Amino acid sequence: MLEHVAISRAIIESYMKELLNSLRLDVAIVGAGPSGMVAAYYLAKGGAKVAIFEKKLSIGGGIWGGGMGFNKVVVQEEAREILDEFGITYEEFEPGLYVADAIEVATTIASKTVKAGAKIFNMVEVEDLVVKEGRVSGVVVNWTPVRMTGLHVDPLTVEAKFVIDSTGHGAQITQHLLRRGLIEKVPGEGPMWAEMGERLTVEHTKEVFPGLYVTGMAANAVAGAPRMGPIFGGMFLSGRKAAMEILQKLRA
Ligand code: 48F
Fold it and tell me: In a mutational test of the pocket of ligand 1, which residue from 41, 53, 55 has the highest number of ligand atoms less than 8 Å from its CB?
């Protein structure tokens, strides 16, 4: 017999266990777009305790819509090995340019990231950072509906040795440091230039403040680098770069 209370308890107890287990992390990632999920995958594979906080119900960020809603993901040669790492099917469109199904990309990356050991909390918004003694050391989280409904409900806090701002075009997390005068500027992304944007995304993937990394479009926004439109290799490479640097620091 299916007992309603047993179903409720299964949900509450297993969720609470994971939430309690995630209160002290090696890495807290904000945003489950391509760069955030790829970072989480490599971090989890490298043995780090990592969780992603995603404000929407669905993971994937900009992956689902490909370009203008045509749900295809284009990747250049440099990032092909990441498609291979995830076992994603793709076709060579022309030499050095590969195209994959956006739905397969989003679901496969999400699935492998979770199976690698990263926890994704969806519907949880990061509304601020913890900064202690000149270092980012955690995130301030709340249910997304709290902000949407304008309810006055205080948030909770998660400690992390490193935080990654993977929030995309607005670099929303780094903006919290800007408005406190803790960093000088977040110029925002420049106009479209695919080749330069892709290169600079990876180049500007770095620790922008002690304890805070930026990836993907957030890295572009913080550096004032060009947007690149619907090509995703730079997002994947950026996520992997941040993960590898952080793993090295965690092991030091
Ligand atoms: O925008 P998004 O996909 O970030 P990305 O990894 O990739 C960009 C590409 O999708 C594409 C592109 C290049 O091809 O230009 O746009 O840089 O994903 C960002 C995720 O962060 C979530 C947001 O809902 C999205 O899923 N997010 C944003 N702010 C918050 C957040 C927040 N404060 N708390 C939690 N999640």
Answer: 55
Contact between residue 221 and residue 170 where contact means Cβ atoms under 8 Å apart: yes
CATH T-level topology, domain 23-251: FAD/NAD(P)-binding domain (3.50.50)
ipTM: 0.99
Nearest of 126, 137, 114 to residue 31 by alpha carbon? 126
| 224: helix, strand or coil | coil
Q: What are the residue boundaries of the structural domains of the chain, listed by start?
A: 23-251
pLDDT, tens digit, 9 for 90 and up, residues 81-101? 999 999 999 999 999 999 999
- Residues 208-214 have a mean pLDDT of 98
- CA 241 / ligand 1 centre spacing (Å): 17
> Tokens 């890295």 belong to which residue?
219
The secondary structure of residue 251, as a DSSP letter, is H
For residue 147, give the nearest of 164, 166, 125 by alpha carbon.
125
Distance of alpha carbon 38 from alpha carbon 242, whole angstroms: 9
- How many Å apart are CA 59 and CA 148, to the nearest integer? 18
